Every structure is written in structure tokens, then in C-alpha cells.
Amino acid sequence: MLAFFVRRVIYAIIAMWAVSVISFVIINLPAGDFVTTYIATQLATGNLILEAEAESLREFYGLNDPVYVQYAKWMTRILQGQLGFSFEFEAPVRTVLGMNLLNTVLLGAGAVLFIWTVAIPIGIYSAVKQYSPGDYIATFFGFLGLGIPDFLIALVMAWVIFDTTGFLATDLYSAGYRTAPWSLAKIWDLAKHLVLPVVILGTAGTATLVRITRANLLDELKKPYVTTARAKGLTEWQIIMKYPVRYALNPVISLTAYILPFIISGSVVLSYVLDLPTIGRDFLRALTAQDIYLSGAVILFSGWLTIIGTFGSDLLLAWVDPRIRLEED
């Protein structure tokens, strides 16, 4: 198990470095730079930017340096606990993201918890009660969850909640708590506002995991060892939970590593629809302005989140199913 853990740590470090390189290359692909976008914006408002002033801005922001030099400076700052300086917001990236990053993590973690809590029991029920009315209902709503866009679900649910209860399910805080210090009242207010976006973000993931859990468990229940267990007189609950469910969850655990970054990327549109203070709005604004350090930080965060999730799922799989680590050893 120790050798398995060490190998995974080495792979994770290499992957994180590769993600950082790819992220920086991607954000430098568009023609021009932040100064080019800034000049276009100023010209649209009737302000003229002289060439000398533009060059001065590029020199100030280090945009005249070769790409590899900019990358080296960026990674050096990250290793020192800094994320660079946002051109668009004229502030350190860490300051710009600030509380929005915490809100995004809470939203993503809540959505993943919702997916696991809802999808696994429904998937098990659908497999055990195959072709029952409950199975058909779960399948129907699963296809709806996969087919309807998140932003449309958000609009409909926000309207229904407001029309029936008068509760405005937008933002993550009430007006009186947005800038207030943390307290039990603010945490409770955040929890109330998190319910709707968590359910919306988790809908597609829940529908996917229900189908995967159902299919895997049905496959396991058809194997000879299940018939042997029934012949030995084990109860149906013991038969299902002892081995079939355990093995059927392996793909579910692996898929979870990719759910959280997908949820964070999916929150970009949802943050505009429900006016959520997440990094999604900052990311879109940074991309529009070609703010390489802010957009790069968000891409890097999403990439590293995938790697950390994969690392965690690998360890969990090795613990749940010893065959995995034995095969590698």
C-alpha cells in the first residue's frame, strides 16, 4: 500500500506541473494581450491611448517578456503562495478571488455530497427493483436531469420558489449578511441559499451516477457468486450489500474525481443566472479582458482539483477493492 501511495504522489506532482504548463499556454493562445484589449475598450469610450503609453503598460505588466519567462515568474510566485497580479481588477489575484473561492468550494462540495447521497441509494433501488414503477420513475427523471440545461432548471426553480414562498433564491447571502462577519446566523443564511444551486448543479451528476450505479449493480447481480450466496441461505440484504454493491461502486468512485471540477466550470453560467458570488463570474471577465494571471489561476485551480480528486479516488478504490493495489504491485 505504501508503494502504491508513493507512486500516486509522484504521478500527481508530474500531472500538476503539466497542467500548469498547459494552462499558461492556453491563456496565451488568443492574439494580442491585456493591453490590446484595454486599448480597444478605451477607444470604444472615446479615449485615445498613445503607442508609448501602451508600451509602458506592457513593460509594467511584464508582457514584453518571452512566454517562458512569464511562466517562470508566474510559477515562482505560486510556489511562494502568490497567484500574481490581476490586470483587469488591478489587485492581487488572491484578493480578487478571496471569498468567492470559498463560496465556490462550498458550492462544489455541497453538490458532490448531494450527488452521492441521492444517486447511490436510487441507483441501488433501481437495480434491485428492476422494471418496477420506481425504476421507471427514476429513469424518467434521470433523462430529464441529463437533458435540461442547468440555467433553465435554475430559472424555473427560482421562479417557483419565489412564487410559492416569497423567498428570493438568488445570491448566496441575504443583503444584511453579505459583508457581515462570520456568525451562526450568517452560516444558517448561507446554508439556506446554498440549497437551490446545490440541487441544480448536482442534477446532471446525480442522473449520471444513478444510471452507472444501476448498470454496474445489475451486472454484478448476474454473476455466479451471487447465486452461490443465495444457495447458502444468505438474506437478500446481505447478498446485495456484502459484495455486489461494493464492486459496483468502483466506477462511481472513479467518476467522482471528475465531477467536482465539472461542477465548478458549470457554475460559471449558473453564477450569472442566480447572481452567485463565485469565481465563475471573475473567470469569464478575466477571459474577456485577457487577464492571464487571473484566468490562469482559475484554470490551474480546476486542473489541480481534478488531480487531487483522482488521487483521492485512487486511494479510496485501493482501500475498497484490494485487487486494484495488488494488480499494480
Which key phrases capture this entry?
329 residues; mainly alpha; MetI-like fold; 2 domains; two-stranded antiparallel ribbon; 2 strands; globular
Describe this structure in words.
The chain has helices at 2-27, 34-44, 51-61, 67-79, 93-128, 133-147, 150-165, 184-221, 224-231, 236-242, 244-248, 250-273, 279-288, 292-320, 322-328; strands at 85-86, 91-92. The chain is an all-alpha fold. The protein has 2 domains: 15-92, no CATH class; 98-328, Orthogonal Bundle (MetI-like fold), CATH 1.10.3720.10. Strands 1-2 form a two-stranded antiparallel ribbon. A hairpin with a 4-residue loop joins strand 1 and strand 2 (91-92). The protein starts with a helix and ends with a helix. The mean pLDDT is 80.
Please outline the helices and strands.
Elements: H1 2-27, H2 34-44, H3 51-61, H4 67-79, E1 85-86, E2 91-92, H5 93-128, H6 133-147, H7 150-165, H8 184-221, H9 224-231, H10 236-242, H11 244-248, H12 250-273, H13 279-288, H14 292-320, H15 322-328
Antiparallel strand pairs: 1-2
Compact overview of the structure:
This protein has 329 residues and is mainly α. It has two domains: 15-92, no CATH class; 98-328, MetI-like fold (Orthogonal Bundle), CATH 1.10.3720.10.
Q: How do the helices and strands follow one another from N- to C-terminus?
A: HHHHEEHHHHHHHHHHH
**Secondary structure: helix percent:** over 70%
CATH superfamily of the largest domain: MetI-like
Report, as a whole number of angstroms, the end-to-end distance.
9 Å
How many structural domains?
A: 2
Overall pLDDT: 80
Name of the CATH class of the largest domain: Mainly Alpha
Q: Number of helical segments?
A: 15
How many whole angstroms does the radius of gyration measure?
24 Å
Instruction: Give the tally of β-strands.
Output: 2
CATH arch. level architecture of the largest domain: Orthogonal Bundle
Strand order of the largest sheet: 1-2
- The coarse silhouette is globular
In terms of DSSP E residues, the strand content is under 5%
